[in-house]
Here is the input.
Amino acid sequence: MRSPNKSVRQSVTLPVNVAAQVRSMARSRRLSANRMLVELVENGLAAEKRKQREFFDLAERFRGATDPEEIKRLGQQMGEMVFGG
Here is the structure.
């Protein structure tokens, strides 16, 4: 049986300024740069999942709305989520 926390080695090329920021953050938190990258990626993945869940919740409210003003407001919110604003 495989370990659920098996690691996979990845090679990533970072722009110089991003690498410097990662090293600086790692130093301030007393972590290795590798561990800092892992935490940043995990946080980014969680943020993306949260954003997607919020969008689907908003879409569900949009589909169930009957008030024209609410429909317009929810439609604008969805547009801002998709296209920025």
